[in-house]
Design a protein that fits this description.
Elements (H helix, E strand, L loop, with lengths): L14 E6 L15 H15 L3 E5 L17 H11 L5 E2 L14 E4 L13 H8 L4 E5 L9 H9 L2 E4 L1 H15 L5 E5 L8 H7 L5 E4 L1 H10 L14 H10 L7 E5 L9 E4 L8 E5 L1 H13 L2 E5 L12 H12 L3 E5 L1 H9 L8 E3 L3 H7 L5 H11 L1
Parallel strand pairs: 1-2, 1-5, 2-4, 3-4, 5-6, 7-8, 7-12, 12-13, 13-14
Antiparallel strand pairs: 9-10, 9-11
Helix pairs in contact: 1-2, 3-4, 4-13, 7-8, 9-10
C-alpha cells in the first residue's frame, strides 16, 4: 500500500484542503460531549499551519439533508472548540463551494458541513471538480469515512493537483497493514458483538488470515449452537449455524467452556457461573466464565499480534463485565502488537482505562470493519491511484 503523505510534501504557501472527521457527539443543548475527534485532527492542521500554508478544513456532522442546514448540523461549535485548542481564530465559512471566501497563509478556516452540499454523498463530478479547484493539495484525513465514495472523500482526490493522506489516515493504514498484512505470529483476532450477521464477512475474511479466532457475545452463542451445545434463551442466530461451521472448519475457534448466566438481562439479575453443558432452557448467556476468561487471557499472552473488535460479554452491567475486563487487562499487559477498533470496543477500552496500553485504537467504525473484511476502501484506492499516476 503506497500513497503520498502530507508530511512528505513541500506545502509552504500552498492552499491545503483537509477532509477531517469532526463528527463529534452533541447533547440536547447541542454542546460537544466528546472532542476526541477534534483533537485527533489537530496534528494535520498544525503541520500545515507550521509550513505557512493556507488551510481549509471540512467535515460532516450528523446526517443533514443535502441543501438544508439545520442548527444541529452546523460546525459552529466545532469551530469554537478548534479555535480554543489551536489558540487562534477559526472562522466558519458558509456557502463555500464556489470559493467566495479568502484564507491567508498561516491561517485556517472551517468550511461548513460538507454533507449539506447537494451532490456530496453521490460524489457528483461537477461538485468534486469545483471543490478540488479550491486547493493545491487535497488531504484525506478522515479514515472513518474512507469506505464512502463522496465528493470530499473521493471525488476531490481525482481532480486536486496533489492528493495525499493526512496523519490520521496514514497512521491508521500503517497500523492495519502491520496487523493484517505483515503480522507477527501468532495472529489472534477477537470478534464480539450481538449478531453473527453483522460481522459474518469479517469472520470469514479473518478466518483466512488468523491463527486463532476468538468469538464473544451473541456471536459466541451462535458458534456454541453450531458445535452442538445448548444455549437456553440466549441471543443467537440459528439460521447462521452453517456459516459458523464453515468458519470453524477453516480456523481454530476456541469456545467458552464456562459462562455467566442469568434469567434476564438486567442490572439486578442474579449472575450464575455454569459449565456450557449445564445451561438451562431459561438461561441467558451474558459473559464468559472464569475458566474461559483465563484461557482467553492465555491466548492473548502468547500472541504476536492481536486484533480486537467487540466485547465478549454485556460489560455495561457489572455482573457481566468480568470477561471483557479480563480481556482488556490481558491486552494491556501483552507484548504483542495490539489493534482495537469499533464503537463498543473503544468504550470498553475507556471503561477499563487501558487507552495508553493498546498499540493502536481505531475509532473508524464502518471503515475499520470493511478493512477487516478485506474490502477495498474508495479513499484508499484514490490515494494509491494518484501516487501511481
Amino acid at each position: 500500500m503506497t500513497f503520498k503523505k502530507l508530511t512528505d510534501l513541500d506545502i509552504s504557501g500552498q492552499r491545503i484542503f483537509i477532509r477531517a472527521d469532526l463528527n463529534v457527539p452533541l447533547d440536547d443543548k447541542l454542546d460537544i460531549t466528546d472532542d476526541t475527534r477534534i483533537k485527533a485532527a489537530l496534528p494535520g492542521i498544525q503541520y500545515a499551519l507550521s509550513k505557512n500554508a493556507a488551510v481549509m478544513v471540512t467535515s460532516h456532522l450528523g446526517r443533514p439533508t443535502e441543501g438544508e442546514l439545520k442548527p444541529e448540523d452546523s460546525l459552529i461549535r466545532v469551530a469554537k472548540r478548534m479555535a480554543e485548542l489551536l489558540g487562534k481564530s477559526v472562522p466558519l465559512i458558509q456557502n463555500w463551494v464556489n470559493g467566495e471566501f479568502a484564507v491567508q497563509c498561516g491561517e485556517v478556516v472551517l468550511l461548513e458541513n460538507c454533507r449539506a452540499n447537494k451532490g456530496e454523498k453521490k460524489c457528483d463530478d461537477g461538485l468534486s471538480r469545483k471543490m478540488a479547484a479550491l486547493c493545491d493539495v487535497w488531504v484525506m484525513d478522515a479514515f472513518g469515512t474512507a469506505h464512502r465514495a463522496e465528493a470530499t472523500t473521493y471525488g476531490m482526490g481525482k481532480y486536486a493537483r496533489v492528493a495525499c493522506a493526512g496523519p490520521c489516515v496514514a497512521s491508521e493504514l500503517e497500523a492495519l497493514t502491520k496487523a493484517l498484512a505483515q503480522p507477527t505470529r501468532p495472529l489472534v483476532a477477537i470478534v464480539g458483538g450481538s449478531k453473527v450477521s453483522t460481522k459474518l464477512t469479517v469472520l470469514e475474511s479473518l478466518s483466512d488470515k488468523v491463527d486463532q479466532l476468538v468469538v464473544g457475545g451473541g456471536i459466541a452463542n451462535t458458534f456454541l449452537l453450531a458445535s452442538g451445545m445448548k444455549i437456553g434463551n440466549s441471543l443467537a442466530e440459528p439460521n447462521l449455524i452453517d456459516q459458523a461451521k464453515r468458519v470453524m472448519a477453516k480456523v481454530k475457534v476456541p469456545l467458552p467452556t464456562d459462562v455467566v448466566c442469568a434469567k434476564a438481562l438486567s442490572p439486578t439479575a442474579v449472575a450464575t457461573v455454569k459449565k456450557t453443558d449445564q445451561v438451562a432452557d431459561d438461561d441467558m448467556i451474558l459473559d464468559f466464565g472464569p475458566e474461559s476468561v483465563k484461557a482467553l487471557a492465555d491466548i492473548v499472552t502468547q500472541a504476536g499480534t492481536v486484533v480486537w473488535n467487540g466485547p465478549v460479554g454485556v460489560f455495561e452491567i457489572e455482573a457481566f463485565a468480568n470477561g471483557t475486563k479480563a480481556l482488556a487487562t490481558a491486552i494491556a499487559g501483552s507484548q504483542a502488537f495490539t489493534l482495537a477498533g469499533g464503537g463498543d470496543t473503544v468504550l470498553a477500552i475507556k471503561t477499563f482505562k487501558i487507552e495508553d496500553k493498546v498499540g493502536y485504537i481505531s475509532t473508524a467504525g464502518g471503515a475499520f470493519l470493511e478493512f477487516l473484511e478485506g474490502k477495498r476502501l474508495p479513499a484508499v484506492e484514490i490515494l494509491e491511484s494518484r501516487f501511481e499516476n
